[in-house]
Design a protein that fits this description.
The chain is α/β, with parallel strands linked by helices. It contains ten helices and twelve strands. Strand 9 and strand 10 form a beta hairpin.
Length: 329
Amino acid sequence: MQTKTSKNIVELKNLKMHFPIKSGGIFRKSVSSVKAIDGIDLNLAYGETLGLVGESGSGKTTTGKCILRLYEPTYGDILFEGSNVGTMKQNDLRSMRQKVQFIFQDPYSSLNPRMTCEDIIGEPLKVHNLTSSKSEYRSRVSDLLMMVGLNPFMADRYPHELSGGQRQRIGIARALAVEPKLIICDEPVSALDVSIQAQIINLLKSLQSKLNLTFLFIAHDLAVVKNICDRIAVMYLGHIVEIATNEELYSNPLHPYTKALLSAVPIPDPIAEANRERIPLIGEIPSPVNPPRGCTFHTRCPIAIKKCRELPPELLEVSKNHWVSCIRV
């Protein structure tokens, strides 16, 4: 799955993130751990949009936060532009974080209600000393507001005076303030109306072409990522189960979990919707504290066999740029 390092802005190698669970009492000891990420390999090339999809609790957001080293990974390596994030000193880490920004899921709770839009967007400019005068600072904030489709006069407004879509545009402008190379979008449209979702996705696509940005687009809705992503990685219970290009994944899904997710995506054609095959998933996603042995999906898989319960499958390339983790494929 690895390509030339020069083509990848981010490389994850056998990444694990286990959160310890402490026992009660005076002498608190780690008795178990939540295996949020349990050994994934993933590459993100310059200029591409990689979708990371899966149910809640599969480890998508944790993966994004590990890239920024907001969490210290339990094991594995994270390479950003060839440098190991885990061994970076504070100055190097600060410089790296200027190049990697986050767009959050909730456009209201991610904005400080006591700050105006100008203060919210301008805070990264102050933190990284990117402007030398007050006039330059205000001019830059105005440019960023117009870049995301808002009028500069909205700089004096507070978040509660804005709609959900406008708040998310403020969050995008804040992320763009430091001229990043990579933006991690953590379900940036899931809290918005459908019509507004399309506007935000079109805005992100436009910004990517203008600014040569790279996106890691985290979502649980495969219908959303279809319109923006070049490649899609499907995640289940801390593991990558399938990676393919956008067209390949939608036209030829191979992992049973991917097929089940796609069967839940509504189709606007009522005849096709009525006649297509449904693949319901039985039961709930298992606990990441005690994941199933073998293939973690076998407890809900409609085609699981005895061997699936014994051996964890490897992520193998079954066709060009199409990787699947399933012994039945």
